[in-house]
Design a protein that fits this description.
Oligomer: single chain
CATH class of the largest domain: Alpha Beta
CATH superfamily of the largest domain: Class II aldolase/adducin N-terminal domain
Number of domains: 2
Distance between the termini: 65 Å
Radius of gyration: 21 Å
Structural class: alpha+beta
Number of helices: 13
Strand order of the largest sheet: 5-2-1-6-9-8-7
């Protein structure tokens, strides 16, 4: 028998412990106190603090946990550890079973045990919202088909290509958002999805969507398009209300567009229909269109593409 929980003990848990130890150290806790909170030896804490985050981040990426999500969970676990051990255990178990339910552990597990290539036990046991993810994948796939059938859409595709994202349930991280791995690219001048949609496929677009959803809960889907002077005129004619941001480089590792949007949202009030990132050094201008579902956002994008094509 080869249960995936052996990966939890051998790989996932040590990587998370290291990030939590680093977070607690940044908050000013001593090694002996961190040792007590994490219930590990002080030499282990010393080893965690000497090691670079990159190794743990790389380990967690094998479980489809993006760097931003890993650091967020480490911060959450650090807060739990400061309160009591039971809270930290509960959060860790919820995180792990959530990954099992989403199939995020499968690739790593199968790389060790190829005979489990057809296994879907964890998803059946732990994914309580399996039908919701399945429906979301089907909806995004249909939205992609609409885009692929358009003769006008390629003209509004930015150089960074296009993705379309749909949040599932009480989405809180990119792993709860269905998108297209590798994005939608131009093939012989027509839009074409690189791969079928799946959860956790776009960190950037998911983070933009999740941030907008905090102030506009009815929004569930997002797509990015090219933004230029003509698209600006299209938006004016359409009556869609834009929110403008400008990406700029910074010392933070946070996504530039997300950082700019976060600051803008804290300073404005009222609704908006689209987000315009005017870009900056090394960042192409992009238009982000929002709607309540993937089909609606795809249709709105196609309307904008048709208007953009009219000279």
């Amino acid at each position: 028998m080869q249960p995936p929980d052996e990966l939890m003990v051998a790989e996932f848990l040590p990587a998370m412990r290291q990030l939590v130890a680093r977070e607690l150290s940044r908050q000013g806790f001593s090694q002996s106190k961190i040792s007590s909170m994490l219930h590990v030896t002080q030499p282990s804490v010393s080893l965690y603090l000497r090691a670079h985050d990159e190794r743990s981040i790389s380990t967690l990426l094998a479980f489809s946990l993006a760097e931003g999500d890993a650091l967020s969970y480490a911060s959450l676990l650090a807060e739990d550890a400061k309160r009591n051990a039971a809270d930290a255990v509960g959060t860790m178990c919820t995180l792990w079973t959530g990954l099992l339910g989403k199939g995020a552990v499968c690739a790593r597990h199968r790389s060790i045990y190829p005979e489990l290539a057809d296994c879907d036990v964890c998803m059946k046991i732990y994914r309580k919202d399996a039908s919701a993810f399945s429906d979301a994948v089907s909806q995004v796939a249909e939205a992609v088909r609409l885009l692929e059938s358009s003769k006008d859409f390629s003209a509004v595709m930015p150089e960074v290509s296009v993705n379309i994202a749909l949040a599932v349930g009480d989405a809180r991280s990119p792993s709860d958002v269905v998108a297209v791995p590798g994005r939608i690219v131009k093939v012989w001048g027509r839009p074409k999805a690189s791969l079928p949609p799946e959860p956790g496929a776009s960190t950037h677009l998911s983070e933009v969507l999740l941030l907008v959803m905090r102030s506009r809960p009815a929004i569930r889907a997002c797509i990015n398009l090219r933004y230029d002077a003509r698209m600006g005129r299209v938006l004016t004619r359409s009556g869609l209300k834009p929110l403008f941001v400008r990406s700029s480089p910074g010392s933070s590792s946070e996504d530039r567009t997300v950082r700019a949007l976060r600051g803008r949202l804290s300073a404005v009030s009222g609704d908006f229909d689209v987000l315009v990132d005017l870009g900056g050094r090394g960042v192409e201008p992009n238009l982000y269109v929002f709607a309540g579902d993937a089909i609606s956002v795809a249709k709105l994008a196609l309307e904008l593409a048709r208007s953009h094509s009219i000279r």
